[in-house]
Design a protein that fits this description.
The protein has four helices and no strands. 19% of the residues are buried. The protein has a domain of 49 residues.
C-alpha cells in the first residue's frame, strides 16, 4: 500500500474514533452524528501537525464560540482539549 493510501486509511479510522468522542460531549442533544465534523477535522489537522494541548484548547474555544456561537468558559474547552489530547496519545501508543 502506498504512503498516501495508508495515511488516508489511518485518517478515516482516526476521524471515526474522534467523532465518537466529540459526540459523547452531547453539545447539542439529538444532533446528527456529523454536526461537529468541522471540529473533528480541525482537531485532527492540529494533532497531525504536532499541536500541543494548549493550542488545541485555544482552537476549540475559538471554534465553539465563534463558529458555533456557544458561550463557554476557556476552562471548559481546556477540559475538552485534554480529552482529545489523551485520546490522541492513547491511539498513538506503539
Amino acid at each position: 500500500m502506498n504512503q498516501k493510501k495508508k495515511l488516508n486509511k489511518e485518517y478515516k479510522v482516526h476521524f471515526s474514533s474522534l467523532r465518537d468522542l466529540i459526540n459523547s460531549w452531547n453539545l447539542i442533544p439529538e444532533s446528527p452524528p456529523d454536526e461537529f465534523d468541522s471540529i473533528n477535522h480541525m482537531c485532527l489537522s492540529l494533532l497531525y501537525r504536532g499541536a500541543d494541548r494548549i493550542k488545541l484548547g485555544a482552537a476549540l474555544y475559538h471554534e465553539l464560540t465563534t463558529n458555533y456561537g456557544y458561550s463557554v468558559e476557556k476552562h471548559s474547552t481546556d477540559v475538552l482539549a485534554k480529552q482529545v489530547f489523551q485520546w490522541w496519545l492513547t491511539i498513538n501508543k506503539v
